[in-house]
């Protein structure tokens, strides 16, 4: 039978170890190791100590040997575990991420980068987060090249931030090709522990176009669904706006540069109705039209997950949403001045120009 090496303690050593066991400030690990040494000093074998403390025999052997070799210092500190951490060339990681692309791919992933640098994917992610790098994301943009951008910007933002008295400012646009989509199979409803389900494929049952005019002052929406979106439908919508707004109010309509908005027939009708004043957004700047915000809301809240077996059903759902919106409308508040927007656009243009010039050279 193998016998564990004996431990003989002086009175000072025994008092020191006993103090560690009894102290409330001692960590649980250190108190347990001190207790192992005290029991060993009483002549107990490793298996007996392990059974009494409810731990493994190997653990008892380790700390008995550590105390015999180094005394109290041997049980106060843990030995380093595992392999030493791999050192990462952070400068190279950042340079590869921002200046290169992986072979046959458009962007780096943590695994691709980890394979190149010989480190784990979690290590790559940690350094990406520390440097604010997100290769998996890309933000879309479009800088307007309209030669009258500044004038149109100041005109429209001026209407938002300082609307004229005795007038209404209406943001108008079409949401075309709204599809009446039905699912090929019935989905399951939401329940505890399970999300609602919906088939990935669908059946098309036709389309409609939503014409909408958002009142900047109070958030009310005038809406109309029509089968097409030619100048004839736009003119029909203008007549609806004429009917549903107070006759004594001047109307300022903000719209984009879609050709139907400037059709000769439309221009002729507008000339006969002088209370209508058209304001066109710069090209590639539809974000200036606040009705786009309403279109986003109706898409997110009513259309995206809707199931419609016919176009009339879709139109009914849209009309219902607009009616519900108008019972308690909330206007969208425009906060950016024309100057702030213009400075941001100028910064974007400078960055794009420098990038293009660098590419050319």
How does this model look, in words?
With 361 residues, this protein is an alpha/beta fold. It has three domains: 11-76; 90-130; 149-341, Nucleotidyltransferase, domain 5. It has 14 helices and five strands. The protein has a five-stranded mixed β-sheet. It is elongated and about 110 Å long. The chain starts with 10 loop residues before the first helix and ends with a helix.
Per-chain topology:
Layout lengths: L10 H12 L5 H14 L4 H8 L3 H14 L1 H5 L13 H10 L10 H8 L3 H10 L18 H13 L5 E17 L18 E14 L5 E6 L4 H14 L5 E6 L8 H9 L3 E5 L10 H13 L7 H17 L10 H23 L1
Parallel strand pairs: 1-4, 4-5
Antiparallel strand pairs: 1-2, 2-3
Helix pairs in contact: 1-2, 2-3, 2-4, 3-4, 7-8
Question: Which tags fit this structure?
Answer:
single chain; alpha/beta; 3 domains; five-stranded mixed sheet; 14 helices; 5 strands; 47% helix; elongated
Proportion of β residues? Answer: 5-15%
Q: What is the count of structural domains?
A: 3
Q: Count the E strands.
A: 5
Biggest β-sheet description: 5 strands, mixed
Q: What is the name of the CATH class of the largest domain?
A: Alpha Beta
Q: How many alpha or pi helices?
A: 14
Classify the secondary structure makeup into a structural class: alpha/beta
Q: Please list the strands of the largest sheet in the order they lie side by side.
A: 3-2-1-4-5
- Runs in which pLDDT lies below 50 for 5 or more consecutive residues are none
- Measured as a percent range, the helix fraction is 40-55%
Element order, helices and strands? HHHHHHHHHEEEHEHEHHH
Estimated radius of gyration:
37 Å
